[in-house]
Request: fold
Amino acid sequence: MSRLRDHLPLPAEGALISPPEGDATPFEVFIQLLRGKPHVHAGTVDAVDSEMALQFAREHYGQDQACVHIWVVPRSAMLGTDYEHDVIWRSTDRSYKLARGYQVHNRWRQFRSKEDVKEYEKEDLKEHY
Amino acid sequence: MSVSASVDLKLDWDIQEDPVKLVPFEERITKGELVEPDDWMPHNYRVGMLRMAEHHANSEIVGALPEGEWITRAPTLRRKLALIAKVQDEVGHGQMLYRVSQDLGKPRDQMLRDLITGKTKYHNVFNYPAPTWADVVMIQWLVDGAAIMNQATLADGSYGPYVRTMKRINMEEAFHFKSGEDMVLTMMSGTPKQKQMAQEAFDRWWAPCLMFFGPLDKESVKTSPFMRWRIKTATNDDLRQRFVDRFAPAALDLGLKIHITVKDQDGMVTEKREDTEIRRNEKTGYWHFSQPDWNEFHRVVKGNGPLNKKRVALRRFSYEQGQWVRRAIVGGSDLPPLC
Amino acid sequence: MDKLPNELKQPLVELLLSVADDKFILGHRNADWTGLAPILEEDIAFSSLSQDEISHAIAIYQIAAGLVGSTADKLAYARKPDEYLCAELVELSDEFNWAIAVCRNFFCDHHDYLRLGRLAHSSYVPLAQLAGRLVAEEQIHVQHVDMLLKRLGHGDTESRERMQSALDRLAPLATGLLEPTQGIELLEAKGVYPRIEPAMFERWTEDLRHVAEASELKLQLQAPRAEAIGGRRGRHSDAFASLLDELTEVYRLEPEAAW
Reply:
């Protein structure tokens, strides 16, 4: 046992005399692991203001992995949709606004050889599909 | 994103939940969808989840104590840093799990007060003593190893915030476990005195680790709705078997002997004999082992373990000595605001 | 300079040990709070800062070890009590009194910030490079402890009284941080430990007083007597032998073993 801990005057048992204290308020913490990458939600700290929340966040969520930037946001400043009642993405056909809604490969085959189409498609921004 | 703090926090199996809500809720869980804080959930789901997260949080901050005692005496600079970081992680896990619990409706302050007045419990395994450095080694290897197995299944649960916290925690537990492995390997390739220390600590921690996963399934009554709702995802016996299958052969390979022990009131081993049941069943691949002393388990759960009183007293000391700080920082102030 | 002239070696080793010992012992004391601090979030932060202190100490021990042919671990664990050069302020037990813990860090962190800032301009290149990195991290400590001091000074009557009494109790010990190590004039003359204007004591007290005033706290610091001899010459408080005994308890079981 740490000597200091071992020689502590340990408190009496039983009910606590002090009144309940109440909690500080929650701040959401977003961390960025590399410059240029998006911030991701890491967790929550309780604090009395943003400055304190940021001090706490950088020593808690900022120390588990290499981290370059942190945002804290008071939860009370955040507004969210409701999974059950708020529709966000529509149910009607949205393929017209997605790249994958356009099947041009076979169309090109009417005009170009298989190899040429393949060569042409190399330049496609596939990650955006 | 707020949750009413006025929910009644007792389990009540007589409640008739609205089937219009309950049926789709259970369907979503069956599909493997996660439940989020603002979603409708059955009362007993909320309470069961809160109890589990609160118990887990309590266990983290009490679990910081046995190893915390050794920070001042770690034998090398690197081990000292690793131990501080490890104990700090336990506090961090406690913080994250209290946050999950707060959002289920119970204030953190209330949870801390319930813990130190004995209204709520923490994990049994932390009521055992860590009298030598080798106990730190065994805690990090065996107890953290057991915790990872348990938490890996909890990360497959149904409550979103808890599942995400579990994944984060498991990432950190992996460092604890590897550091434990590194230390046990170092000690078992060290001097005769180090090997003896390791064996004695292993003898103290093997049985508490078998008990870590909770009582035998046949004695464990209340799990079924929680299994259906995937608050709990594996049974105690399954997890215990997985633990033995991994750690019994590892211990034997390291040259450790697995003993059946008798302990005194302080948790120190007074008698030991080799566990002759330890062997691999070649047909099933599972390892046989002797059950620990379940009477001891029930004694410790009831608060009569070696260190129950001391652990709670230290938490209480921490709470009481910090009151003026929290009052000044969090509470109302009678001085002009900070500029 | 990349290579140190011989006559500077001993003075520099003593200076490095004084910096590293301060940090090591402070980190050792502060780390005992891990799991017991007043607020969970602050517990985590305070522990993180303790780890920094020890990590900084290790990096500085490594430079010293290179100069004397030893290792950081041997320097940390295997010296006699009178070979440690830390100041008495870091040796003191805070008895888990948060006001003492915060005020001690207040004195030490501001001092380390100035000290590392000077070393960051050292003519001895390896040291300057290291200190340059460490001083940036020390700034986090200063920010954090200033925040604590301000909030507790401004908190309520009780917290202000506790903080004031801790400051008053520690102030006489705190000036021991400025006790010079042997041969420091030579290091200053050669730019290994560059002088600053105004001098260390004035800069340090000005920084401290500025924050104390913003925290509604009073601070009285007496310039250290030039002839006072303490930690920097290996003379320590009674508490130090016991601290060291505890710190090395496991290490001494098998000093040659790996742990």
